[in-house]
Amino acid sequence: MSKTLSVSAIQNGTVIDHIPVGQALKIIHLLKLLETNQCVTVGFRLLSRRMKLKDLIKIEDYVLTEEEANKITVFAQEATINVIKNFTVKEKIIARMPKTIEGVFICPNAACITHVEPMESYFYIEEQGKAVKLNCRYCEKPFDRNQVKVTI
Length: 152
Known about the structure:
Alpha-Beta Plaits, SH3 type barrels, four-stranded antiparallel sheet, elongated, 2 helices, 152 residues, mainly beta, 2 domains, five-stranded antiparallel sheet
């Protein structure tokens, strides 16, 4: 593999690397990056030694909060989150799977009360090896992470 970057370097900001293929758009919506003024660069299906293929997100002039970093783990448990200053990695953020997540996802159960009442969704998160299950607090149904949609 050559040293040429598929996605150009950023001077300052955050790089979310080693995202499983197909999960970058979900993370962009999860972090509401389309609603910010930050420049966001996304790479899809990039070659990776560690994963064969990966997605990548670079956010210029923005450092993720601990809460934002933790939310990412729902879709990318093994993502690497680096804080960049002057084109150099200055810090690695260690994200942890949150136990609960509120107001972020839409419950896939059409009969769930969250679809008819003005209340925020609330899920309990359970890691089962590489699988992630989200259990709705209200309808008590479990869902795979790929079944839930991010609230836009």
